[in-house]
Each structure stands twice: as C-alpha cells, then as structure tokens.
C-alpha cells in the first residue's frame, strides 16, 4: 500500500464562501445516494428536457453530425462566424431589437459560461449587482465569485411575480453596476409586462446601469403570452441578452449559448476587452455544438407544437397548476412561460421552518426530488420549485403523492 505524504489540509477558499448552487446541492446528493442503493427517484429538480422524452429536432442532430469531421480544431474564441451571423439574423427578425454587430455576439458553453465570463469582466470587489429574488441561483453565485455583491430585489407574488420596481429602486447605491432581468423567469414562470420592463430600463437609464437579460426561455410561452426583450425597449443602453439551445431546442447537454451585446458599446471598450480576454483564455466553446446554432435558430421552430394550447408542455403546466391548486394550504401563480411551477406553502397551514429539511423528507418518504425555495435566494422557507417536464400521467401521480405527504407533514 502507498504511504501518503501528509498534505496540508485543503480547506475551501474564502472566495467560494458565498457561492451556492442548491439545485444540485445536498438534497440532490442524497437523491444520488438513494439511487445508488437501488431506489427509483422522480427528479423534478432540473430543467433538463432530454430525460423526459423531449427530443431535439432531427435537423439539429443531422447538421451537427455532418459537421463533426470539420469541427475537430479550435474555433475563433468568440465562436464560429456562421453561428454568430445566425444569431444576428434571429434578432433582426425581432420587432424593435436594436442593431447588433456580429462582433458583439459571443458564443459559450451554454449561457452558464457566459454569465460567469461577463460578470468576471464587469465587477471589481464590492461592486453591486441587482439580482431578482427568487432568482436562477447561478446569477447570485457568479456575482459573488466575481468579487461582487448580489443585491436581491423582490419579485411580487401578489403581482404575478413581476419585479417590484420600487424595491429595485430602493436597493440602488453608488456601487450598483448592473440589473439582472430573468424573463421569462426561472423559477416563477412569470413573463414580464412591457410596462414593468420599461420602468426597469428607465431606472437603468437614470443610474447608468448595465442591463443583463437572461432570456433562455423566451420561446417557451403559454396561453399566447408575448415576450419582450428589454434590449428592444432600451436601444440607448448597454444591454447583454443571453440565450441558447438548452431549453427551446432541448439540447442542454450540447452546451450551446450566446450573449448579444447591444447599445453604446463604444462606451464599454474596457469591458468588451475583458470579455474578449476571458473568451480567449477558455480558447473557444465546444465546436460541434456551435454548428447546431445556425440550423436551430433559422429552421422550423418545433417548440411551437409543444406550447400550443393542446401541446405537451402546456398540458403538463396545466396539470401541475390544477393539482397544486387543490392542495390545502398551497397556492400557485400560473406560469406564463418556462418549465417550472413555484408554489407557496401557506405558513399558517404548514409551518415549515426549514425548507431543505422538507425536501429531504419528501425525498426519503416519496422518492420525489424537488428544490427548496430558499435555494433560489427566496428569503422565507415557504416555496418549492417543481419542473413541469414529466408526462402528465407521471406528474399527476407525483403530485398526488406530494399532496398526501404535505397533508400530514409537520416539522
Ligand atoms: N439561465 C436560466 C434562467 C436557466 O434556467 C438556465 C438553466 O436552467 C441557464 C441560464 C443555464 O443554461 P445553459 O444550459 O445555457 O448553461
């Protein structure tokens, strides 16, 4: 046997202290353990369409396969020109979207990498970023990792989870650099009204803030909801619009995303040079996946069938909303977009003190994995996020079990 040389104890660096990503946190780790012991776990915790029988359009697969022989080398750091041009054309078709220079489109290994890169290029220690609560927690984590301070503004459940513009205003300080807008929203499914977006743009204008718009669900809309890109309402402001193939085109595993930078880029040379530098240090995004972008954004939009009134995603959203609505002490704002429901557990009925424990108990007892609301930087332990990706029959069975569990649950 090898005698180990005694290493210095490796502790976690301080810079990771506020970096959390609970969607794949301790509850998910316990689920993996249970699976290893042979239990079947219904995973309602990750917005990953493929395991639920959603297949990517065949044209995307064929195009990527055909590109494999020529996609062996590194590409330009920003990404291949044909894909960046396709992204430009996509936005040219969107009413009111500002002019977009192909040099201001960067491709990434998913939106995730671009969120990390752009916040690293933006923030000095102590700079503040306005992030929604609840949020997609990568925004909070990436802000902290980049040395910044996330300042959470409240989205108002009573107002269809629209951001409270007054709350945003009250949190602006001389250190504030950017406002993050996740629309359609994960975890709430809210699709923001044009008025709210205009008010947010106006705040950004008054305080010289950068707009960072995460629009990865912009084509996953229900009941005819209309999505407005905040960039279209603020052509005079620097705006970063993030999107990619993970959700609309169901190829989350390919890791393909982009960021489109619009507005007065000539006032942001240092920032853009920083992005350029970081893009070059990661060499380039996964090249075969870049080839999927052009065919995806310019071809037939098969997501439309899934979100039609009788489409699979709409039906599943409906099942989730109606089942949750019938549970005592549970209420839910009907999502207008995205792939999640974010129900509220009435504190007078359920008295949950620790929502992580609630999810662990649900997992142990019912083998259902969901994410606690505080994992989305929601301040109180009274929400859960459930993905609406399983077939209606599975979702109905899971929610039935969850309802029974909650009815007798006490902490
Ligand atoms: N932004 C939001 C709001 C998301 O929900 C997700 C994934 O769930 C991402 C970004 C990450 O997407 P990608 O797969 O492009 O990294």
UniProtKB/TrEMBL annotation:
Coiled-coil stretches noted in the UniProt entry, renumbered to this chain: none
Membrane-spanning intervals of the chain: none
InterPro entries the record matches: Ala_Aminotransferase, Aminotransferase_I/II_large, PyrdxlP-dep_Trfase, PyrdxlP-dep_Trfase_major, PyrdxlP-dep_Trfase_small
Cofactor entry: pyridoxal 5'-phosphate
Pfam families associated with the record: Aminotran_1_2
Protein EC: 2.6.1.2
Domain Aminotransferase class I/classII large: 41-388
Keywords noted in UniProt: Aminotransferase, Pyridoxal phosphate, Transferase
GO molecular function terms attached to this record: transaminase activity
EC class: transferase
Family: Belongs to the class-I pyridoxal-phosphate-dependent aminotransferase family.
PANTHER family, A to Z: GLUTAMATE-PYRUVATE AMINOTRANSFERASE ALAA (PTHR43488:SF2)
Protein's recorded name: alanine transaminase
Organism: Ornithinimicrobium kibberense
């Amino acid at each position: 046997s090898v005698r180990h040389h005694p290493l210095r104890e490796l502790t976690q660096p301080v810079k990771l202290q506020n970096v959390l990503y609970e969607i794949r946190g301790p509850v998910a780790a316990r689920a993996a353990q249970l699976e290893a012991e042979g239990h079947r776990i219904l995973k309602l915790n990750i917005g990953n369409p493929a395991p639920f029988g959603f297949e990517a359009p065949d044209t995307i697969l064929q195009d990527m396969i055909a590109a494999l022989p020529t996609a062996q080398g590194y590409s330009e750091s920003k990404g291949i020109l044909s894909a960046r041009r396709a992204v430009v054309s996509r936005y040219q078709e969107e009413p009111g979207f500002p002019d977009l220079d192909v040099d201001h489109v960067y491709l990434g290994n998913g939106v995730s990498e671009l969120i990390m890169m752009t916040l690293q290029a933006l923030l000095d220690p102590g700079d503040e970023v306005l992030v929604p609560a609840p949020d997609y927690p990568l925004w909070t984590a990436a802000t902290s990792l980049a040395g910044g301070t996330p300042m959470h503004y409240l989205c108002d459940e009573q107002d269809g989870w629209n951001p409270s513009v007054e709350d945003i205003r009250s949190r602006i300080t001389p250190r504030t650099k950017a406002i993050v807008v996740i629309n359609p929203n994960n975890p709430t499914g809210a699709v923001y009204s044009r008025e709210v977006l205009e008010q947010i743009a106006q705040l950004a204008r008054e305080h010289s803030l950068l707009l960072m718009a995460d629009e990865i669900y912009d084509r996953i809309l229900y009941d005819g909801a209309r999505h407005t890109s905040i960039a279209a309402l603020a052509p005079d402001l620097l705006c970063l619009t993030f999107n990619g193939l993970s959700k609309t085109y169901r190829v989350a595993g390919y890791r393909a995303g982009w960021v489109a930078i619009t507005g007065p880029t000539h006032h942001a040379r240092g920032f853009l040079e920083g992005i350029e530098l970081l893009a070059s240090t990661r060499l380039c995004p996964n090249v075969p996946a870049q080839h999927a972008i052009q065919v995806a954004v310019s071809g037939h939009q098969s997501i439309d069938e899934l979100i039609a009134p009788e489409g699979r995603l709409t039906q599943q959203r409906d099942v989730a909303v109606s089942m949750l609505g019938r549970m005592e002490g549970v209420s839910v704002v009907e999502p207008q977009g995205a792939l999640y429901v974010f129900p509220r557990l009435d504190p007078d009925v359920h008295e949950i003190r620790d929502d992580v424990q609630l999810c662990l108990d649900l997992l142990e007892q019912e083998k259902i994995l969901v994410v606690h609301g505080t994992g989305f930087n929601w301040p109180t332990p009274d929400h859960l996020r459930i993905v609406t990706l399983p077939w209606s029959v599975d979702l109905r069975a899971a929610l039935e079990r969850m309802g029974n569990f909650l009815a007798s649950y006490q902490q």
